[in-house]
Automatic annotation (TrEMBL), chain A:
Pfam families: UQ_con (PF00179). Residues 188-203 have a biased composition (Basic and acidic residues). The lineage of its organism: Eukaryota, Metazoa, Ecdysozoa, Arthropoda, Hexapoda. Residues 188-213 are annotated as: Disordered. Residues 13-165 form the UBC core domain. This is Ubiquitin-conjugating enzyme E2 J1-like. InterPro entries: Ub_conjugating_enzyme, UBC, UBQ-conjugating_enzyme/RWD.
Automatic annotation (TrEMBL), chain B:
It comes from Trichoplusia ni. InterPro entries: OTU_dom (IPR003323), Otubain (IPR016615), Papain-like_cys_pep_sf (IPR038765), Peptidase_C65_otubain (IPR019400), Peptidase_C65_otubain_sub1 (IPR042468), Peptidase_C65_otubain_sub2 (IPR042467). Residues 75-275 form the OTU domain. The keyword Hydrolase applies. GO terms for cellular component: nucleus. Its EC number is 3.4.19.12. Gene3D superfamilies: Peptidase C65 Otubain, subdomain 1, Peptidase C65 Otubain, subdomain 2. This is Ubiquitin thioesterase. The record marks I225, Y239, D241, Y265, Y270 as: Interacts with free ubiquitin.
Length: 253, 275
């Protein structure tokens, strides 16, 4: 932190705010932890625990937080690094109030709000939103198990980053109403550069899962089209048979 | 962004993606417009003679009549950037400027401002983010207080300082955020009363989360009523639009108060007026 105060203009409200948040989040909790990189106050790494009672239970997920220079007027971006089956990894996602534009981010929210919202949002259905993945519960559970031994090239073994004893501060009234409304989705053309560190372990399998995703939906689509064609053909057939049987029905009227 | 949305709708094959695509395009366009605006208009401009409005409406007889009416009561105008925060920015600038020459009003305001943080924390806003905005806000307020009622020279220098701070995005936005929070606090504290002003099925709290607390959300009557009540400051808004007649109608908030801040409203935007 000492270096940071030399490097940045601490009179600038955004910098002051981030230093404050770094202090606020200095102590790791069981649910989440986050801290700025040594040399960049505007990039943080975080770790969250998968929400209990969901497919992510027991999982530990690590990622980056990128803070825009207008922070806290504009929302932080989150990039997950640990394969999790809910969000694509290495893709910028952004939080917003569901059904509204990302401009509904509020400056009184913080990195903590974003992390709590991320945890709360993980078990919600992906519904084809950009940046979302719709893996099966079984696949997610496997990833949750594997995530425990995942390591970040900058932060090391992520399982060691969370506290095993300190509970997070209770959720405030404001946060409660916020958490119910928040949604995450990817934005921009995101070629969010894969982080410089290709040092992750156990990459191959999640990649296999990822590549099976578009194929699945393509097959689904193909099946839908075939079913539609079939229904149409049967309809025409019945119609023609009907006319053949009652050819005079119109003239009678 | 468009590419991204369309390519993903290619694999997911659902209709939702199309609407996202449209939304994203509109948003992108809006962001570009906002960027253009922010590059050309200062957050708070210099004092201008009211005649600059006449030039603006050179070929518009309806507005020209109204500008004429306006100029019988006001001499100057100070424009603000139309970024959705203009009411809060115009209000705080004009009020702090007024406080420089009104020490007793300053003392009254200082007490209200000092207690405002506790009200917000009690309502459940996160203590440390509220404190963050509060401190920057109070820093500016206190600078005004140190010089309030001072010599003309001292006032001139603090006016310049105020003007600089209001044009520094960081400071300026922090003041706007804090006033948005105070407005939200007032609405939530008196939610029985304000619920009547909210159209549709939204609760006061939902309204605050969606229309008051986020930056760049435009202000309506309800914002002005709440803020002027919360700070106990009289605001007169002159409404200038295409409506009938040659008079510019004034509204005082709260009703019957003595206005210390005078604002000009033209559809979608607030500027500061000076007698």
């Amino acid at each position: 932190m000492a270096e940071i105060s030399e490097k940045y203009n601490t009179k600038c409200p955004g910098v002051k705010r981030l230093m404050r948040e770094a202090m606020e989040l200095a102590e790791a909790t069981e649910e989440y932890c986050a801290r700025p990189l040594e040399d960049n106050l505007f990039e943080w790494h975080f770790t969250v625990q998968g929400p209990k009672g969901t497919d992510f239970e027991g999982g530990i997920y690590h990622g980056r937080i990128l803070l825009p220079k207008e922070y806290p007027m504009h929302p932080p971006h989150i990039i997950l690094l640990t394969p999790n089956g809910r969000f694509e990894v290495n893709k910028k996602i952004c939080l917003s109030i569901s059904g509204h534009h990302p401009e509904t981010w509020q400056p009184s929210w913080s990195i903590r709000t974003a992390l709590l919202a991320l945890i709360a949002f993980m078990p919600t259905p992906a519904e084809g939103t950009i940046g979302s993945l719709d893996y099966s519960p079984a696949e997610r559970k496997i990833l949750a198990k594997k995530s425990v031994s995942w390591a970040c090239s900058q932060c090391g073994e992520i399982a060691a980053l969370l506290s095993s004893t300190t509970a997070a501060k209770p959720i405030t009234e404001e946060e409660k109403t916020v958490l119910n409304q928040i949604a995450f989705k990817a934005e921009d053309e995101q070629t969010a550069k894969p982080p410089e560190e290709p040092a992750h372990t156990q990459e191959p399998e999640p990649q296999v899962l990822e590549s099976s995703e578009p194929t699945n939906s393509f097959l689904d689509q193909l099946t839908e089209i075939l079913v539609a064609l079939l229904v149409g053909a049967v309809g025409i057939f019945i119609y023609r048979r009907w006319n053949a049987h009652y050819p005079t029905s119109e003239t009678e009227l | 962004m468009a590419d991204d949305a369309s390519s993903s709708s290619g694999c997911a094959g659902n209709i939702i993606d199309n609407s996202i695509n449209q939304d994203e395009l509109i948003m992108k366009q809006q962001r570009e417009i906002e960027k253009e605006i922010s590059e050309t208009i200062p957050l708070v401009g210099e004092l201008e003679d009211l005649s600059s409005l006449e030039k603006e409406y050179n070929e518009d007889p309806v507005y020209l009549l109204k500008v004429k009416d306006l100029s019988s009561k006001y001499k100057y105008i100070r424009r603000t950037r139309p970024d959705g925060n203009c009411f809060f920015r115009a209000f705080s600038y004009a009020y702090l400027e007024h406080l420089l020459t009104d020490k007793s009003e300053y003392n009254k305001f200082y007490e209200i401002a000092k207690n405002s943080k506790e009200i917000l924390v009690a309502l459940g806003f996160s203590q440390f983010t509220v404190e963050d905005f509060y401190e920057t806000f109070m820093e500016v307020v206190q600078r005004v207080g140190e010089q309030a009622g001072g010599s003309p020279d001292a006032l001139d220098s603090v006016r310049t300082e105020l003007h600089d701070k209001f044009n520094k995005q960081g400071y300026s936005d922090y003041i706007v955020v804090y006033l948005r929070l105070v407005t939200s606090g007032q609405l939530q504290t008196e939610n029985d009363f304000y619920q009547n002003f909210i159209e549709g099925p939204r609760t006061v709290t939902e309204f605050c989360r969606q229309e008051v607390e986020p930056m760049y959300k435009e202000s309506d009557h309800i914002h002005i009523i709440a803020l002027s009540n919360a700070l106990n400051v009289g605001v007169r808004v002159k409404y200038m639009d295409r409506g009938e007649g040659s008079q510019v109608i004034a509204h005082d908030f709260p009703e019957g108060s003595k206005p210390l801040v005078h604002l000009l409203y033209r559809p979608g935007h607030y500027d500061i007026l000076y007698a």
